[in-house]
Specification:
Length: 524
């Protein structure tokens, strides 16, 4: 898992002769909305054309930030759409198990002999003349002396009836009795997909929470880093005044005074860059929670996350059972199995009942009603591989779902292990950096005394101060890293919920602290 390391674009070593100081503990998540949030995620809301006033500054707590992100981020709108889609599939499957009532209306005109005669029968208007009776009597003669000839004459009224029309209204009731288990399989598949979509929604919410927590902690760290650079500025100005004083006393050369002046300017520049990084970190959180870009805010809480209980192996076992993405994949496998069952139903017979009432008339209206009832038994015997192809496709879907779950489990186990070890290392690093700061502060104090007495050089003094600034910045990095890794660990375990976040009031805007049980260092 990549380390959430603070980039080294703000070294505090003004002389730049010591090793590179990796102190910018906070570009960290400066681009939280870029590194953690997909490109299609929430964009900054546009400002109203007539809104030129600056809103008042608001205090933003972590729970408020999470709640706002959960209600406005498009990621969750997409997952909710998938849930609604699955619910619709269940409703469709349930409806297919019940009788269906269809109402239809049709109008037809034709001069086809069979159609015209059928329309007259349906309308109840057929008579003997429609069979050519009058033509028959005419050909047979008054005494029926030409019966043989008359019988051989085609009836014009029957064979060439001319145009006629019919209006038909039908009400049909279809009752499914047995369909080989197809509808039940589709319903079970839709139910499993709904559960998978709901688990996916939980996963999406937890992922969004992880982004918000990381972005919020990035602001905490950025503010602490501003405090680090502020201390560096104060120290640089102090050394500048000291070197000027010693130069006037003839203790040091003019070059020391010039070096101190350059050093103070460089450190002031680094401080301004840290302030800019803080603004960038705030913009990243704004993107995540959908806050207008002209809305000023400040965070008022420090966030803590406790270490999960148990061992690494217990954590891995728990993650396999509780991680919402793994749960969703398991439910997708259940849906694929139901899909196989539904596909195999095409090899079984089907039986359905129907009842229909029709009205037929040459004019609009419900006239000349008739009734039809029946049952239909069907069984496809030969289709030249169409059914087997359908079943094979469903089986392949099941195999693919099982493979995806196996790959996800392997990835999850590696992720839990990496986050667990990274969190342990960050916790240990806090204790090391606490000691390093104490020693560096004492070393800087002694080096300053030596320089004041002319026993050391300005180069040594600035290098000692750079080491102190480096230790302070690395502590900020370690604190931020611990929060990020514990957040990632809780995400992998499926336990990243708002209740898992512990908070304490932010006393100073440059304060930053590690979770309880770890070393605590607050910047003045």
């Amino acid at each position: 898992m990549p380390s959430h390391e603070i980039p080294s674009n703000i070294p505090i070593n003004a002389t730049q002769i010591s090793r590179t100081v990796r102190v910018s503990a906070v570009t960290l998540m400066i681009l939280a909305g870029v590194g953690l949030l997909p490109a299609e995620a929430t964009t900054l809301p546009p400002l109203a054309a007539n809104d030129l006033s600056t809103p008042s500054t608001i205090n933003l707590g972590i729970q408020q930030a999470i709640e706002q992100a959960l209600t406005q981020n498009p990621m969750l709108q997409q997952s909710q759409a998938m849930i609604d889609q699955a619910k619709g599939a269940i409703q469709e499957a349930n409806g297919n198990r019940l009788p269906q009532l269809d109402l239809s209306f049709g109008a037809m005109a034709s001069n086809n002999a069979l159609n015209v005669f059928g329309m007259k029968l349906n309308q109840g208007t057929a008579n003997f003349n429609d069979f050519g009776v009058q033509q028959f009597f005419t050909q047979a003669g008054p005494t029926f002396g030409n019966l043989a000839g008359a019988s051989a004459v085609p009836p014009d009224a029957l064979n060439h009836p001319g145009w006629d029309h019919n209006f038909q209204t039908s009400l049909k009731l279809s009752i499914p009795i047995y369909n080989g288990g197809k509808i039940r399989g589709l319903r079970d598949q839709a139910q499993a997909l709904l559960q998978a979509a709901q688990s996916g929604d939980v996963a999406a919410k937890q992922q969004l929470m992880q982004q918000v927590i990381s972005a919020y902690a990035a602001i905490d760290a950025a503010q602490a880093f501003v405090g680090v650079t502020r201390q560096a500025v104060d120290a640089a100005n102090s050394y500048l005044n000291l070197s000027d004083k010693l130069y006037k006393q003839g203790v040091v050369s003019k070059s020391d005074s010039l070096k101190s002046e350059v050093n103070a300017g460089d450190i002031e520049l680094r401080h301004q860059e840290a302030i800019n990084q803080l603004s960038n970190a705030k913009d990243g959180l704004r993107i995540l929670i959908g806050m207008p870009s002209n809305q000023p805010f400040k965070i008022n809480e420090l966030i803590n996350l406790s270490k999960p209980k148990g061992t690494l192996e217990e954590a891995r076992s728990f993650a396999m059972q509780n991680n919402p993405q793994i749960v969703a994949l398991t439910q997708q496998i259940d849906a694929a199995r139901s899909g196989v069952s539904s596909a195999r139903s095409v090899y079984k017979p089907q039986f359905n009942l129907m009842a229909q009432q029709d009205w037929n008339s040459r004019t609009l209206g419900l006239k000349n009603d008739s009734y039809t009832v029946g049952g239909v038994f069907s069984w496809k015997i030969l289709d030249f591989g169409a059914r087997s192809g359908q079943v094979e496709r469903a089986v392949a879907d099941l195999s693919g779902a099982q493979s995806r779950q196996l790959m996800a489990i392997n990835t999850l186990l590696a992720q839990v292990g990496a986050s667990w070890r990274a969190a342990e290392l960050a916790d240990y690093r806090l204790r090391v950096k606490k000691l390093a700061i104490t020693q560096s502060e004492e070393a800087a104090r002694l080096e300053k005394l030596r320089y004041e007495q002319g026993l050391s050089t300005l180069t040594n003094l600035l290098q000692t101060q750079a080491e102190l600034d480096k230790s302070r910045a690395e502590l900020v990095q370690a604190q931020y890293e611990l929060i990020v890794q514990r957040t990632n660990l809780l995400l992998a375990l499926g336990e990243l919920e708002p209740a898992a976040i512990q908070t304490q009031p932010l006393i100073s805007q440059t304060q930053f602290t590690a979770p309880k049980g770890s070393t605590h260092y607050a910047h003045p």
